[in-house]
Design brief:
This is Cystathionine beta-synthase. One of its GO terms (biological process) is serine family amino acid metabolic process. InterPro entries: Cys_Synth/Cystath_Beta-Synth, TrpB-like_PALP, TrpB-like_PALP_sf. Keywords: Pyridoxal phosphate. This protein is of the alpha/beta class and 344 residues long. It folds into two domains: 197 residues, Rossmann fold, CATH 3.40.50.1100; 102 residues, Rossmann fold, CATH 3.40.50. It contains twelve helices and ten strands. The strands form two sheets. Strands 1-2-10-7-8-9 form a six-stranded mixed β-sheet. Strands 5-4-3-6 form a four-stranded parallel β-sheet, sandwiched between helices. Helix 2 links the parallel strand 3 and strand 4. The radius of gyration is 20 Å and the shape is globular. The structure holds 4'-deoxy-4'-aminopyridoxal-5'-phosphate (PMP). The site of 4'-deoxy-4'-aminopyridoxal-5'-phosphate has 16 residues, from helix 7. 4'-deoxy-4'-aminopyridoxal-5'-phosphate (PMP) binds next to helix 7.
Length: 344
């Protein structure tokens, strides 16, 4: 990597081996050294390229998939985009069952990548036959030679990061990493990466980032599913209202909860101060680091790696829209002056 004049057979050869970039400004006042694993450098612009490629290649190895077969998943987010991308190169049909809550932009983006998109009503329960879960399940049963990625309940999601993200971070830090900070959605990224890193050095501390409105942190602490923890929140891609089996709670030391508002402002701050145009959950992960720093968790000799899962361009109508930020009330208590910038 990093060599000039390289030629690749397809975009799939560019999946993984993402750079680790030292953070220069946002963490400047904190003790320790901070590095970001910038997953937007994947060809599909997110960490989900790794799981799409890994899960599809494992299915090929097992003889489940042959050219022309169909890959099915229930997401309008990064995973959908990555599956669509891998499907193009490998010659599969890609069907994505998504919620009618998904923005038209997202649906158009998936269509641009050749996916067939089924838009399913958002406000029905998961077991309603019209829900995107049930539509995906039914299509999987009906379509011969289809694979259902099922990222929240697929152990291969963890494997993908165990095989790639973990070893990359270990090598890039020359084994000096002391803390891993990563958002937990399916839990695949943090679980696979942490499992590998802890095998190399059991002292590496692993901190998951969760949203207010998600059950994950409480479940980790109490092993109880507390429905009272569940309420709507705006960050997409982290936290959950169920317990995914793609999360290995044993390799995660602790979870930190972050707010929608602070995460949004921190994403903007990273873009402005590091020149790294990052997504909403990158802001969430950095917000968790700020909170941990306030608690005095980090020491002078610590080497902290934070995963930045995707690119800011996917959030133009949200975190990077002053209008949207204003509508959420996110300018009410912090950065009032930020809202008033009118210069273009
Ligand atoms: N950030 C974003 C933007 C995501 O799409 C996801 C995946 N849901 C995550 C973070 C969390 O990654 P994981 O699913 O591996 O826990």
């Amino acid at each position: 990597m990093g060599q000039k004049n390289q030629v690749f057979d397809s975009v799939l050869e560019l999946v993984g081996n993402t750079p680790l970039v030292r953070l220069r400004n946002v963490t400047a006042p904190f003790k320790g050294q901070y590095y970001a694993k910038v997953e937007a450098f994947n060809p599909g612009h997110s960490s989900k390229d790794r799981i799409a490629l890994h899960i599809i290649e494992q299915a090929e190895k097992q003889g489940i998939l042959k050219p022309g077969d169909t890959i099915i998943e229930t997401t309008s987010g990064n995973t959908g985009f990555s599956i669509a991308m891998v499907s193009i190169i490998k010659g599969y049909e890609c069907i994505l069952a998504v919620s009618s809550k998904s923005s038209p932009d997202k649906i158009d983006m998936l269509k641009a990548m050749g996916a067939k998109v089924y838009v399913c009503p958002a406000h029905v329960s998961a077991d309603d036959p019209r829900s995107y879960y049930q539509v995906a399940k039914r299509l999987h049963e009906e379509v011969n030679g289809s694979v259902y990625i099922n990222q929240y309940f697929n152990e291969l999601n963890i494997d993908a990061h165990y095989a790639s993200t973990g070893p990359e971070i270990w090598e890039q830090t020359e084994g000096k990493i002391t803390h891993l900070v990563a958002c937990s959605g399916t839990g695949g990224t943090i679980s696979g990466t942490a499992r590998f890193l802890k095998e190399q050095n059991p002292n590496v501390k692993v901190i998951g980032v969760d949203a207010y409105g998600s059950v994950i942190k409480k479940f980790h602490e109490t092993k109880e599913f507390d429905e009272n923890e569940i309420y709507p929140y705006r960050i997409e891609g982290l936290g959950k209202n169920l317990i995914p089996s793609a999360t290995d709670f044993d390799v995660i030391d602790t979870f930190v909860k972050v707010t929608d508002q602070e995460s949004a402002h921190t994403a903007r701050e990273i873009s402005r101060s590091e020149g790294l145009f990052v997504g909403y959950t990158s802001g969430a992960a950095m917000q968790a680091i700020k909170q941990l720093n306030d608690e005095g968790v980090f020491g002078e000799n610590d080497v902290v790696v934070v995963v930045f899962p995707d690119h800011g361009s996917r959030y133009m109508s949200k975190v990077y829209s002053d209008k949207w930020m204003g509508e959420q009330g996110f300018f009410d208590t912090v950065n009032k002056e930020e809202a008033q910038i009118v210069e273009y």
